[in-house]
Write a structure and sequence with these properties.
The chain has about 90 residues and is an alpha+beta fold. The protein is built from 4 helices and 3 strands; from the N terminus they run βαααβαβ. A 3-stranded mixed beta sheet has the order 1-2-3, with helices on one face. The longest helix has 8 residues.
């Protein structure tokens, strides 16, 4: 399990996690992590950024949160495809 500030991603050891399932509980907070342009402009998710540092891990994003007001404003129709992957493997 990786539960660190996004700013600590460069310090996560890649070799011991290669080929292993890694549970990603991290959430980006610019006030804590500093601004990361690719996350601010939404061209990358925090999990995609983590994969740059642990590219051979099998990453699963869990325990994410959503602001309660977004439940209504960002609702999607029943049966709609997910907007982001929930799991990714090496390669």
């Amino acid at each position: 399990m990786v539960t660190v500030p996004v700013s600590a991603f460069p310090h996560v050891p890649a070799a011991p996690l290669a080929g292993k399932t890694v549970i990603d509980t991290c959430n980006y907070g610019p006030e804590r992590d500093g601004h990361i342009p690719e996350l601010d402009n939404k061209s990358l998710t925090s999990s995609e950024l983590l994969l740059r540092y642990v590219p051979d891990a099998l990453l699963i994003k869990v325990f994410n949160n959503i602001f309660f007001k977004h439940l209504l404003s960002l609702a999607r129709p029943a049966g709609a495809a997910p907007t982001a992957p929930t799991c990714r493997g090496p390669g």
